[in-house]
Amino acid sequence: MLQLENVTHAYDGRMVLRDVSVRITEHRVALIGANGSGKSTLARLLNGLVVPESGRVLVDGQDTRRHARAIRRRVGFVFSDADTQIIMPTVAEDVAVGLRGAGLTPAETAARVDDVLRRHGLADHRDHPAHLLSGGQKQMLALASVLVTDPDILVCDEPTTLLDLHNVRVIADTLRGLRQQVVLLTHHLEMIADFDRTLVMDGGRIVFDGAPDAAVAFYRDLMERRP
Amino acid sequence: MTALGLYVPGDTAVHRLPAGAKLAALLVAVTGLLLITDPWAALGAAAAAALLYPLCGLGARHLWRTLRPLLPFLALIAVFQTLVAGGDVAARVCGQLGAAVLLAGLVTSTTRVSAMFELFERLAGPLRVFGVRPDRVALVLAMTIRCVPLVATAWRAAREAYVARGLRRRPHRMVVPVIVNLVRSAEALGEAMSARGLD
Predict the structure, then answer these.
(1) Pick from B118, B8, B144, B142: which is nearest to B66 by CA?
(2) In A, which residues are within 8 Å of B115 by CB distance?
(3) Which of A140, A200, B51, B92 could be disulfide-bonded to A208 (CB atoms 3.0-4.6 Å)?
(4) Which residues cross the membrane (chain B) (predicted)?
C-alpha cells in the first residue's frame, strides 16, 4: 500500500505539492493533470527519488525518508524519456544492470534477462546497441529493465508521451497484463479507461478522486474552464 | 553492430574466447608488432590482421569502418615519416599502426561490453585496499560508452535547431545549448540510476 500523509513539497520556493494525503491500495491507479500540477513530483515521492519537505510517504508502512534504498528495490520507476533511462550500451546489458547486487549467478542473470526480453518482444535485439532502438522499443526496454527486478509496485511517469499510437497501445497492453500494482501518470486518457481509480491533480492538490470516466470528465471540464 | 564499433554478435572461435585471453593476446601481438623492423613484415601483419575479420564473421564494411578513422592519421604519418626518415620507415610505422588498430578493433568487435567490464572489474579488484569499488569503475566505463551517443544526439539537436530557425551553423554557438542539454541528460540519467537502485 502507498500512503501520503500531509505531504507538502517545494522546489526553489515554488510550491508543487500542498498538504496531499492519499492512500493507494488499488491494483491500477491513474494520475492525471495539467503540466506543472504536481503529479510527477508525487510519483517521484513514491519510490523515494524525492523526499517530502514535510509530511510522510509510506510504502507498506516503510517511510521513504528512512528506507529509500529498500523502497527503490520494491517500487520500479519508468520515466517518459526512455533515452535517459538507458544506462548501458546494449539491450541485454541494460536489463542486466538492475540485477547487480541481487546475488544471482551469471547464468541466473542471463536467464532472467532472456526471459524478460522474450516477454517484452526484445529477444531479437538482445545484443543490439540500446540507443539505436526505435522509440517504442526503447520505452519497452526501459519497462523491461525495471520489471526484470520483479518490483511489487510500478510507477510510470508519462511513459507514452513520446510514442506513436501503436506503441501507446503496446505499452498499455503490457501494463494491463502486469501482476504489479501500477501507478500511471499520463496524458493519454484512453489508456486509463479500465483503471481501478483515477486521481486528478491541479495546483499541487488532488482535486478529484474516483472512477476513470468521471475523473476524465472532471479533468476535461477543468481544462476547458481554464483561461 | 554499434555506432561505436563495439560488439558484433557472432559464434566464431574468437567470439567464444574469454575477454581476458583476447586482451592478453592483443598485448602480445602489439608488443610483437613493435619489434618488427622490416616494412614488408609490418605491412604483411596489417594485411593478416585484416584477413582475420572475415574469419570472425566481420564483413568488409565493418573492416572499412574500423580503418576509416585511422586513414587521415596514417596519411599524415606517412608523409611526415617519408620526409624525415624515408619511405621504409613510413611503411613500417603505418603497417604497425594499422595492424594494431585492426587487432584492437577485432577484440572489441568480438567481445561483449559486459565481458570487458567484468574483466576490468576483476582487474580493478586489488584497488579495493585503496577504497576503490571495482563495480563502480566498471559502471563508470560502461556509462562513458553509453554517453557518447547522448553527446552526438545533443549536438545534432542543437545543429537542427539552428538550421530550423534559418540561422547559420557556427560550432561555437552550439556549445552552450549542447552543454545545457547534456547537463539535463546527466541529471535525468542520475535520477534513472537512483530509481533503479544504482546510486
Answers:
(1) B8
(2) none
(3) A200
(4) 20-36, 43-64, 70-90
Report the alpha-carbon distance of residue A180 to residue A152 in Å, rounded: 5
Cell output for B154: 545533443
Cβ of residue A31 closer than 8 Å to a chain B Cβ: no
**A125-166 tens-digit pLDDT:** 988 888 889 999 999 999 999 999 999 999 999 999 888 999
For chain A, the domain total comes to 1
How many CB atoms are closer than 10 A to CB B24? 12
- Using the structure block, give the residue that is written with the C-alpha cell 524478460: A116
Please say whether the dihedral angle defined by the alpha carbons of residues A206, A211, A212 and A214, taken in this order, is positive or negative: negative
**CATH at A37:** 3.40.50.300
Check A72 against B195: CB less than 8 A apart: yes
Distances (CA, A) of B59 to A80, B6, B63, B145, B176: 37, 14, 6, 23, 40
**φ and ψ at A164, to 5 degrees?**
-80, 175
Distance, in Å, from the CA atom of A143 to the CA atom of A55, rounded to the nearest integer, reads 30
ipTM score here? 0.75
Chain B residues with CB under 8 Å of a chain A CB are: 1-4, 6-7, 9, 112-114, 135, 139, 142-143, 145-146, 149-150, 153, 185, 188-189, 191-199
Buried b vs exposed e over A127-148: b needs ≥16 C-beta within 10 Å? bbbbbebeebbbbbbbbbbbbb
Residues of chain A contacting residue B2, judged by C-beta atoms under 8 Å apart: 89-90, 129, 132
pTM score, whole prediction: 0.76
Local confidence band at A210 (pLDDT 50, 70, 90 cut-offs): very high
Contacts of B143 in chain A (CB under 8 A): 87-88
- Residue B152: CB partners within 8 Å, gap ≥ 6? B3
For residue A57, what are the β-bridge partners?
A4
> pLDDT, tens digit, for every residue of B124-152?
888 888 888 888 888 887 778 778 778 88
**Rounded CA separation A116/A123 (Å):** 8
